[in-house]
Design brief:
Largest sheet: 10 strands, mixed
Radius of gyration: 22 Å
Structural class: alpha/beta
Distance between the termini: 25 Å
Shape: elongated
Strand content: 15-25%
Helix content: 40-55%
Oligomer: single chain
Number of helices: 8
Length: about 280
């Protein structure tokens, strides 16, 4: 059975972009799309005691009314989630994808992903969620948690979809960047795209060998990749390359050589996701 493209939609302004990117991946890989909306704990009806110190009969009636309100709110939240999924399905369908399923989940989004990611080839999520649509310096809290927990590539969709023809691969020689190159070599998604593997640092024999190995691996997969070494700070120089040369997507390891990589996303990765106006694919 073909691995699914798992696309998380939450009703934020990034959800439409997530849908278009999911359809783009599906078209190139012939993989089915599953659209998921998770009703998190914050969507559950709030439990507040509004009855106060009143006589028993009135208190009982009020508690019944509050229970009814909770039930109505839960039903509305569920209806809203299904409406989000139907809108998302329409977008993906109009982009030419026919194999689409939708799923409404309850609970924590990371727990939901852990239960279904075995069947996933990639997980798509917007850079920022519904609560942070216009907070430019803020990454969605679910994004950081998903990247830390996921064992599948995480595709972080930009705010707007643009056709992708070229890819910048951030390569530092670490295990996650090696995994990124291997992923590109094995995935039909990257066939026919222009690929440039970039290292930020000094031109040492070790770095040159690492780039040559990456280039050879991609060539064996039929991808003629360019390599480049630039000096400076990774998050600054990589961002400049994306802007100046019009790369449509960045692929990178989620972590570099940080001692605390098991606790937080690597600083370069975080800054790239924050600042890039193009999608970023993260592998750990």
């Amino acid at each position: 059975m073909s691995k699914k493209i798992i696309a998380l939609v939450d009703g934020s302004i990034y959800s439409e972009s997530v849908c278009h990117h999911a359809a783009w991946i599906a078209t190139r890989t012939e993989a089915p799309v599953e659209l998921i909306h998770v009703l998190g704990r914050r969507d559950a009806p709030e439990k507040q005691d509004l009855s106060g110190a009143i006589r028993l009969g009135a208190r009982t009636q009020l508690m019944e009314e509050l229970a009814d309100l909770d039930a109505q709110r839960a039903k509305l939240v569920s209806h809203r989630g299904r409406a989000i999924l139907e809108d998302a399905r329409t977008i993906v369908d109009q982009d030419g994808v026919t194999d689409i399923t939708t799923r409404l989940r309850h609970g924590d989004v990371v727990e939901a992903i852990s239960e279904i990611e075995e069947d996933a080839r990639v997980i798509l999520i917007g850079k920022r969620g519904e609560a942070a649509d216009f907070a430019k310096g803020h990454l969605g809290s679910n994004l950081e948690r998903i990247v830390r927990a996921a064992n599948r590539p995480v595709f972080v969709a930009s705010r707007a979809f643009q056709p992708i023809t070229s890819v910048l691969v951030a390569y530092d020689g670490g295990s996650s960047s090696m995994k990124a190159v291997d992923h590109i070599a094995r995935s039909s998604l990257f066939a026919g795209l222009g690929v440039t593997v970039v290292t930020v640092g000094s031109e040492t024999p070790a770095i040159k060998k690492g780039l040559a190995d990456a280039q050879a691996l991609l060539k064996a997969a039929g991808i003629e990749a360019e390599t480049r070494i630039v000096s400076g700070q990774p998050e600054t120089e990589l961002g400049k390359l994306v802007e100046q040369e019009g790369f449509g997507m960045v692929v990178m390891g989620a972590y570099g050589h940080s001692r605390i990589r098991s606790l937080v996303i690597g600083s370069t990765t975080t800054e790239m996701v924050r600042s890039c106006k193009v999608p970023v694919v993260l592998l750990r």
